[in-house]
């Protein structure tokens, strides 16, 4: 269940578009991103090996700003601009920056990607887009627009893809074994429908390095980062799993059989001892992939 849920804006867990009140989702999005902080920190450390002393870092699709603030900590000389379509989420980002003492070099811009990036005062040395691109109908066009906002020698970092969330053993004692693989298949179909219904949708092969190169960028790199939180799950990890499956529940009704749906409902029922709320075997295992490329100097 991972390709398509976003802790930040665009990783609560699963999202549609017009039917989501992003500001209302703020606490869930923030908690999910905090759970993944160690993964993001490793990703930012990897970026820092090649992106040295950036002046401006743009978080395109920042959500409540958890990663934006991690950028502020990782790059203490940089100015950070969080960009998102939800001012409610950006309010949370500004409050977080204030709490962490980085508000003096932290700004926000409200608007829809990619056009809102024209409001930047100067080009970015690093533009980070974490699972925001797949919300845009024309991904190739959006990448070209992202690339245009980079300073010469600037880096575009794209977090897309990875491996789906796993949170229980293949056979966890209720229902038919292999439930999560069947959920993956339903979500993949849902994601395809979501993409095709986006305004201005353009079908695109998800070869991210090739798309970055097509945007005129060079030196593509790819690295995946694993979040491995073994059982027994912490309260925060357990809450993330419950939220992830809960947000999938309506979509699952279209693709799972009655037995699997009954199993899902048991997993979500806080009064059931076999549920995710009580089981000792709940874990979190998930991977995110980051692709980078550089604007020629």
UniProtKB/TrEMBL annotation:
Positions of the Methyltransferase type domain: 58-156
One biological process term in Gene Ontology: methylation
Annotated Gene3D superfamilies: Vaccinia Virus protein VP39
Coiled-coil boundaries: none
Transmembrane helix among keywords: no
Pfam families: Methyltransf_12 (PF08242)
PANTHER family given in the database record: TRANS-ACONITATE 2-METHYLTRANSFERASE, TRANS-ACONITATE 2-METHYLTRANSFERASE-RELATED
Protein name: SAM-dependent methyltransferase
Organism: Streptomyces paradoxus
């Amino acid at each position: 269940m991972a390709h398509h849920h976003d802790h930040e804006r665009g990783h609560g867990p699963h999202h549609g578009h017009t039917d989501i009140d992003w500001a209302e989702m703020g606490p869930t999005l923030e908690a999910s991103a905090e759970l993944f902080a160690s993964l993001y920190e490793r990703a930012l450390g990897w970026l820092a090996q090649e992106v040295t002393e950036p002046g401006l870092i743009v978080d395109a699709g920042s959500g409540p700003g958890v990663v934006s603030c991690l950028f502020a900590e990782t790059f203490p000389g940089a100015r950070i601009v969080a960009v998102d379509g939800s001012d409610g989420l950006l309010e949370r980002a500004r409050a977080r920056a204030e709490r962490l003492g980085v508000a003096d070099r932290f700004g926000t811009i409200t608007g829809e990607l990619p056009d809102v990036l024209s409001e930047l005062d100067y080009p970015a040395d690093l533009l980070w887009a974490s699972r925001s691109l797949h919300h845009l109908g024309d991904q190739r066009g959006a990448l070209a627009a992202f690339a245009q906002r980079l300073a010469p020698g600037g880096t575009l970092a794209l977090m897309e893809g990875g491996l789906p969330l796993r949170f229980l053993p293949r056979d966890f004692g209720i229902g038919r074994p292999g439930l999560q693989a069947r959920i993956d298949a339903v979500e993949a179909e849902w994601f395809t429908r979501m993409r095709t219904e986006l305004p201005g949708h353009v079908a695109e092969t998800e070869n991210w390095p090739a798309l970055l190169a097509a945007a005129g960028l060079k030196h593509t790199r790819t690295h995946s980062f694993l979040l491995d939180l073994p059982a027994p799950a912490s309260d925060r990890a357990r809450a993330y799993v419950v939220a992830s499956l809960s947000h999938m529940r309506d979509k699952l009704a279209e693709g799972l059989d009655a037995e699997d749906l009954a199993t899902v409902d048991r997993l979500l029922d806080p009064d059931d001892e076999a549920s995710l709320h009580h089981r000792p075997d709940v874990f979190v295992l998930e991977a995110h992939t980051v692709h980078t490329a550089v604007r020629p100097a």
